[in-house]
Amino acid sequence: xxxxxxxxxxxxxxxxxxxxxxxxxxxxxxxxxxxxxxxxxxxxxxxxxxxxxxxxxxxxxxxxxxxxxxxxxxxxxxxxxxxxxxxxxxxxxxxxxxxxxxxxxxxxxxxxxxxxxxxxxxxxxxxxxxxxxxxxxxxxxxxxxxxxxxxxxxxxxxxxxxxxxxxxxxxxxxxxxxxxxxxxxxxxxxxxxxxxxxxxxxxxxxxxxxxxxxxxxxxxxxxxxxxxxxxxxx
Length: 234
Known about the structure:
Number of strands: 7
Number of helices: 10
Radius of gyration: 17 Å
Helix content: 25-40%
CATH topology: Rossmann fold
Largest sheet: 7 strands, mixed
Oligomer: single chain
CATH architecture: 3-Layer(aba) Sandwich
CATH class: Alpha Beta
Strand order of the largest sheet: 3-2-1-4-5-7-6
CATH superfamily: Vaccinia Virus protein VP39
Order of helices and strands: HHHEHEHEHEHEHHEEH
Structural class: alpha/beta
């Protein structure tokens, strides 16, 4: 527990006992559901606090999250969206994933933890990026999904409103990947990538964030049809 609470303090995140209880209930639900479906390889509680909760929350040092409309694209088992929602409850959160059974689990978490102003959406980013309900509608687009930045940019930037931000969670050895994504970011109307490195509190694990500002509307061509961005990156 000290790993979590000390980490929160070092990230300047205020918290109460109720929020700590929500995190622990989330952990219990994740471990229980992980017995019947593959949600995470991290089952140790210390690692869960460190590599899922605190890692997800590092983004608060990259951008102010308070009262923002946020979408988490490729949320998986709910990271970073659920931890962000627990500790920044005033956010308006959408969790998007292409695998419905993951979202069934997340819906159970939302209901069990009584989280408000958070919904799940099942679908492909390539298709929902053209949906008027979502396109250019979010202050912040987050993605901790494992994919090349050129691909993620095409999937995520169309959701960002003008002057909003796409923030991608990356590992520390991504210099070449970020350089290769410059063309895609430009085509999609993003600014030059800002790269910020942060360590998870009380660990040697370094996380790299790529922050891209949306400068003008993305061309209607993008994102391209499902599967195309991954096969033919910009």
